[in-house]
Write a structure and sequence with these properties.
The complex is a heterodimer of chains A (about 80) and B (about 325). Chain A has about 80 residues and is an alpha+beta fold. Chain A is about 45% helix and about 25% strand. In chain A, strands 2-1-3 form a 3-stranded antiparallel beta sheet. Chain A is elongated, with a radius of gyration of 16 Å. The two termini of chain A are about 30 Å apart. Chain B is mostly beta strands. Chain B has one domain (about 10-330). Chain B has a 19-stranded mixed beta sheet that branches. In chain B, strands 4-5 form a two-stranded antiparallel ribbon. The chains are: A alpha+beta (about 80), B mainly beta (about 325). The interface of A and B includes residues 32, 33, 35 and 36 of A.
Chain lengths: ~80, ~325
Amino acid sequence: MLMAFMILVTTVIQSMREVKMKVKATADFFFYRNQVLELPKQKFRDLQAGKVVEISGDDFKKYPKCYVEIVEKKEK
Amino acid sequence: MAISGVVYSGKEVQVGISQEATFGTAIADAGAFVQIAEFDSVSIDYGLTLDLTPKNRGKRIAYDADVYASQTGGLRTITLSNVVFRKVEIAEFLYGVFQNVTEAAATPYMKTFSVSDSQPNFAANAGYFFTLGIKNVSNHDEKFTSCIVQELRLRADMVGGDGRLRGDVVIISGFAATTNAAFSGTWTINTQAYFDAHLFDTKTVLTKDVVLYNMEFVINNNAKRFGNNTSGNCQGYSIGVPELLLTGSVNIKYDAETVGFLASMLAGTEGVIEIGYDTATPTDGDIVFDFNEAQLTAVDHDDNREEGIARTINFKGVATAAATPEIRVCDALDQTW
């Protein structure tokens, strides 16, 4: 019982951790409108300009093909 | 049985488009649409598979139970004729046919449409696709899902016409048409400026300044639907296979500047054709047809104009190692494309 509770707590804590990653855009990115990607506008523009930007893990999961290079990944 | 005494005017037929975010998911009836208010007519090929051939029933006429009608696997083609374009609409349709754009990050948000060597993955929501709505009568509106533009014909006649940029838009949808929509959202009629070709400041063919009487540009991406989901709707479109065709023709004054075009055409000499507003600093309202390399394909006599002898120069855009033909539009609208 205690073990099950511990597993549950661990799972909840892990799911609450926010994953952030620094990424660069791939060629695929340039075929996307931000209406679809729903990134903050400046991040969208920065990615278009070839810059490395920080996005959430959820954003990455939505369209992973858009971001070829994960420069850095961190959990907060 | 009583007839209906109500009469509808053709001007009650309203057409609107709305960008979609998810391929295959149409904008809701209550959604906002950009209304295309200036066109002559809309014609629709519903792409219906209809089999009315007689079967081996011993009859010499088709039998009702054998009739087969299905929208699955079909392509809907909607043609808007003689649309008078305003700034924002033209960008939407150019994106719809090129499926490739670079938008500047600051005002006037110049959009450069050019031919890509690749194409968007529509199934992953890349590219530009939209819902096309046609308001007919309440609860009998038509809706076409995940449309793209297959062909865009742009023209302006500065002598016989009013000089405004107008043309035909051929729109396709690989999804079954909805015939019982009831649009209730906001349909916004664009009041942006027109493009008046009388005011174009750049009119050059093979580096020669020309006197332009009329012009036409045709962009055809040769799009085809592919695949079928479990509803018989498409899973994407092919774009530019085997090529995205950019062609055009200009009717110009025949004079000392333009006399050499026939020889250029016969010799296969390529060169720049650039027509539009091309101010040094991009400005809201600019539009430029920049065929930075074009091959003349025909030089036709037009000797009986009231303005004097003219020539119709036909051409096809080609790529060089450095560039491909492009069309640039500044509409001061940040689309985050």
